[in-house]
């Protein structure tokens, strides 16, 4: 069973005592057992809490946007695990290694990952949002994560903030061609907040008004 939330909160507050800025990571496993894959009959969860220094990203990432590439590594289809942040990140490690130390002229800081059906799912370390016109106004779209991908906390926050502001939001299937037709793109996660995308492969995008609006709303939410 999962540990009591009050226990995790107490341990987190103790670890963070005296710290103003930092990154708290909480890992919960099912605990130890015998050899093999079968869980023990009476599993006792293991909790690992770690605190590291705050991550400071370059200001131009937020002001001007970032460059993004499309990864060759594909995400496996597994509806049972879709949405959760589990500890098997081998696909992400392989994807990030595709351009590590290769000196690519585009200098991508993030990569988009697709599934085996050519659907765009997410970034290596982030969730993706697209702003598209549908004839009646701008629509905020994000990939549907029913077969793979991580439903990040900030992704959920952005959906809630956008809907509260009266913005139409769709969780939908997106192929690369759909993404390229967008007027605005941005990436998000808990540590970086929102990064506008200024370039995806060879195509350039403007840092648009909805991206700015949601960035400001997210900052206000977390102040």
Automatic annotation (TrEMBL):
GO molecular function: 4-amino-4-deoxychorismate lyase activity; pyridoxal phosphate binding
Keyword match Lyase: yes
GO CC field: cytosol
InterPro entries according to UniProt: Aminodeoxychorismate_lyase_IV, Aminotrans_IV, Aminotrans_IV_CS, Aminotransferase-like, BCAT-like_C, BCAT-like_N, Class-IV_PLP-Dep_Aminotrnsfr
Keyword hit for Lyase: yes
Assigned keywords, A-Z: Folate biosynthesis, Lyase, Pyridoxal phosphate
Pfam families: Aminotran_4 (PF01063)
EC number, as in UniProt: 4.1.3.38
Catalytic activity entry: 4-amino-4-deoxychorismate = 4-aminobenzoate + pyruvate + H(+)
Signal peptide boundaries: none
NCBIfam families noted in UniProt: pabC_Proteo
PANTHER family in the record: AMINO-ACID AMINOTRANSFERASE, AMINODEOXYCHORISMATE LYASE
Family: Belongs to the class-IV pyridoxal-phosphate-dependent aminotransferase family.
Name the UniProt record assigns to this protein: aminodeoxychorismate lyase
Origin species: hydrothermal vent metagenome
């Amino acid at each position: 069973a999962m540990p009591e939330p009050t226990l995790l909160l107490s341990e987190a507050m103790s670890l963070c005592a005296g710290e103003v800025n930092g990154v708290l990571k909480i890992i919960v496993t099912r605990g130890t057992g015998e050899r093999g894959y079968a869980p023990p009959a009476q599993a006792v969860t293991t909790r690992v809490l770690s605190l590291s220094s705050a991550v400071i990203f370059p200001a131009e990432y937020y002001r001007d946007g970032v460059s993004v590439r499309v990864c060759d590594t594909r995400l496996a289809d597994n509806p049972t695990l879709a949405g959760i942040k589990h500890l098997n990140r081998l696909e992400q490690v392989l994807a990030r290694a595709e351009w590590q130390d290769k000196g690519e002229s585009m200098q991508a800081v993030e990569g988009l990952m697709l599934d085996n059906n050519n659907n765009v799912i997410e970034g290596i370390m982030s969730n993706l949002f697209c702003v598209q016109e549908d004839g009646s106004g701008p629509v905020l779209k994000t990939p549907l994560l029913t077969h793979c991908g991580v439903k990040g906390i900030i992704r959920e926050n952005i959906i809630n903030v956008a809907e509260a502001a009266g913005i139409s939001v769709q969780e939908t299937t997106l192929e690369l061609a759909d993404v390229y037709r967008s007027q605005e793109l941005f990436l998000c996660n808990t540590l970086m907040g929102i990064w506008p995308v200024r370039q995806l492969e060879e195509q350039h995008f403007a840092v648009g008004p909805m991206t700015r609006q949601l960035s400001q709303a997210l900052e206000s939410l977390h102040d």
